[in-house]
Amino acid sequence: MTKTSTARGIAGGVLLLAALLTGCSDDPKETATPSGSASDTLLADYGLDGMETVEIIDHLDRLGGDDRPADLMASVRPSELVVSAGDEEYSLEVPDGQFYLSVAPYVDTTHECFNHSLTTCQGELTETDVDVTITDETNGEVLVDEVRTTFANGFVGFWLPRDIEGTVSIEYDGKSGVVDFATGEDSPTCLTTLQLT
After folding, report:
1. Angstrom distance (rounded) from CA 77 to CA 27
2. What is the DSSP letter of 118?
3. What span, in angstroms and rounded, lies between the C-alpha atoms of 138 and 150?
4. Which helix (H) or strand (E) holds 89?
5. Residue 191: in which H helix or E strand, if any?
6. How far apart are alpha carbons 81 and 169 in whole angstroms?
7. Number of Cα atoms under 13 Å in the Cβ half of residue 164
8. Exposure string for 120-146, b = 16+ CB within 10 A, e = fewer
């Protein structure tokens, strides 16, 4: 093992511990706006250059374990993705009318979370098939009704319409659970309260 990989392992452990202690959600009071080449350089350093915000979120949320960049923080907010490394921090807009909700169903263990961290959040049920139904309670429309496989981080992500309220229902191994959600400007992007019983 090289000094670099050892340092990355230690840094990753510190980030994971911090995520578990703080509910995996960072919430800096200010966010910066990308400044052209500076933000492009940061994204390029992590193989994310050329990707749109949606692609970056989808890519990073699927990573787990050693595949996650240990020194990159990426926090999903209702209207932006905040990425940071070292002293650099940039904000990338989420497309108008869309909201990313990442859900970590659990049986035994969970953690508090508000803004989903793509590089530190860890759920209980990894790479597990779950039957998901998401309903828009404002009009009764079923937005999702399918089997999804949780990512290596124990979450499964959904792009939903903005400014709705609804329910997420998940079934797995004879167990089920349902929780409410909202997709407003002040709504959480990380849902870790769906217990399967």
Report:
1. 9
2. T
3. 27
4. strand 88-93
5. strand 190-191
6. 26
7. 22
8. bbbbbbbebebebbbbbeeeeeebbee
Q: Which residue has the tokens 């250059």?
A: 49
Contact at 8 Å (CB) between 51 and 59?
Answer: yes
Give the pLDDT score at 10.
40
Q: Please, are residues 116 and 58 in contact by the beta-carbon 8 Å criterion?
A: no
Adjacent-strand bridge partners of 193: none
Q: Output the CA–CA distances (angstroms, integers) from residue 183 to 61, 101, 142, 161, in the order listed.
A: 19, 8, 15, 7
Measured over the CA atoms of residue 161, residue 162, residue 163 and residue 169, the dihedral's sign is positive
pLDDT in tens, 48-78: 989 999 999 999 999 988 899 989 999 999 9
Which stretches of the chain score pLDDT less than 70?
1-39
**Beta pairing class for 190-191 and 98-103:** parallel
